[in-house]
Amino acid sequence: MQTNMNVHDGRELKIPRRKLWTVFKEQKYLFLMMLPALIWAVLFAYTPMVGLYMSFVNYQPNLGGFWTTLFHSEFVGFEWFRYFFTNGDFLKVMRNTLASTLITLCFSFPMPIIIAIAINEIKNVSFKKTVQTASYLPYFISWVIAANIIVTLLSSDGVINAILKFFHITNESILFLQNGKYFWWIVAIGNTWKDMGYSSIMYLAAISAINPELYEAAKVDGANRFKQIRYITLPHLKPTIVILLILALGGILNAGFDQHFLLGNELTKDYSDVLSTYSFRYGIQNGMFSYAAAVGMFSSVVAFIIVCIVNFTAKKVNGQSLF
Amino acid sequence: MRSKKSIAEYIFDASLYLFLTVIFIVTFYPFWNILVISLNDATDTLRGGLYFWPREVTFDSYLTIFRNPEIWSAIRVTVLRTVIGTALSIFCISMLAYSLSKRHLLGWRFFSFFFVFTMYFGGGLIPTYMVIKSLGLIDSFWVFIFPGLIGVFLMILVRTFIEQLPGEIEESAKIDGANDLQIFFRIVMPLCVPVLATIGLFLAIGHWNSWYDSYIYTYKPELKTLQAVMVKILNQFQTAGMMSDAQQLAQSSTRVPVSSESIRMAVTMVATLPIVLVYPFVQKYFVKGMMMGAIKS
């Protein structure tokens, strides 16, 4: 067997047309090593895609096993999609999803760039390290912990209300999480708080790739530090900024489940219901499985189309594919 | 004439320091605040106004939660899933990465697409729930391990790392008659320790932080993870938040409320502390992981 392997490597290039079975036998260990991942992909990635058939039938969960029930359910075509688009929730849920992701983008996109540039300009290494360490930390905690913290900070006797009262911006405590009009902003700032430090790493990496001689030359020419940032750092960051902006726009329908589910409540659900939490509520909590699957399928398909567009755009801009 | 710095540059520097100090406070202070509240007496906390220092320092909240068997069970499940899940994932991901690093693999294009496609399209919440249910994983410990076994993005990181290894080492092993399994486990895997440590940390953090699977796929209390217990506490608190302070105080005169803020913050600290403690030591791996990801895209 082992001698066979040796022969195979020598011969493979010379004789390209060989029986598949022989090649397969020679690569059996490679396939063996791929096997657990293949089983995983079939069971947990592709079988649920087959399960999307749910959205075209009227699935009633009380008839027996999932697959038997599924394929014996009454076929209703696009009825659930039609119901979703016409019952008024669609506009509300889409509005919430887009508002949440776009407001998030307004904060969470520029912040890492500003942080990276500021950190790069600071000469004091220990100060720099301290700020970086602290700013990455929120990225590593779960949204459950983050939500617990946010709820505490925003509570009626929390520190945010204390600050607002101190500056006489308000005299009564604001009930932030009980009032829907604040919800998108809370999620946006929460997202930014969690990710801005960690996202700045990408820009710091891009900055560290800039040739230091450029700054030396600029200094000789009498450029001050604003001008160095304006004419050296920012132009060199532009490709990174463009690519990350395109990627961020690709996630425009993907308003994270965690933050909306954990921070939202009965009082704010008109503002906190995004595609994923809406689907969850109707499916897992209310038992309208087919309807919830249709909502989920709508968001998966649209998100996939957006990703394809994003990939195409990135290819145009960058000359290389993201895939 | 000692310095050539202009006044404008001093102002510039000062505003940079000011800005980054604000960033530091904004990211660090919330953690300090929960520590302060968790160390304060639970009933006293209801008076509010705890911002910088606890008024009545006590470890009672921590004692209360550690006397609760539910928390111990949650910690045990969380540690178990983190250890087992991370180990199994590293094992399976690295094997897959090695197979896919071989471009002569039969059907390489197909298999690469097969895995990468799962990053961009999925069945979604409901069909996934149904499939997991039909596989009998509801109320099973393995529901924490198997559905998230493979991270395709992490696999790409490992694959890129393997492709950058010098090919001669593998070649010479092949000439010595080693098969792919032996080459992988004896030669490639030991060389991959840096990248496996990086993805291991991401996987471990992911397991520690995961709440959704425990929240919806398990009903047995002994399978609730720390994060899922916290979701329950958070929900109770959100409901309690709709009561007035007076109602809460009235409730607290008889007994410390279940949703007491100090206790909630103590649980939060217990869930956060391992990450905060481990994090400074492993920070460079995370940064490295992010960089690798950046280079990839």
UniProtKB/TrEMBL annotation, chain A:
PROSITE patterns: ABC_TM1 (PS50928). It is found in: Cell membrane. The chain crosses the membrane at residues 29-46, 66-85, 97-119, 139-164, 237-257, 288-314. Keywords: Cell membrane, Membrane, Transmembrane, Transmembrane helix, Transport. It is a multi-pass membrane protein. It comes from the Bacteria. Pfam families: BPD_transp_1. CDD domains: TM_PBP2. Residues 94-310 form the ABC transmembrane type-1 domain. Its main location: membrane. The keyword Cell membrane applies. GO terms for cellular component: plasma membrane. GO terms for biological process: transmembrane transport. Belongs to the binding-protein-dependent transport system permease family. This is Protein lplB.
Automatic annotation (TrEMBL), chain B:
One of its GO terms (cellular component) is plasma membrane. InterPro entries: MetI-like (IPR000515), MetI-like_sf (IPR035906). It is a multi-pass membrane protein. It is found in: Cell membrane. Residues 75-282 form the ABC transmembrane type-1 domain. Keywords: Cell membrane, Membrane, Transmembrane, Transmembrane helix, Transport. The chain crosses the membrane at residues 12-32, 79-98, 110-129, 141-162, 183-205, 263-282. It comes from the Bacteria. One of its GO terms (biological process) is transmembrane transport. This is Sugar ABC transporter permease. It comes from Paenibacillus selenitireducens.
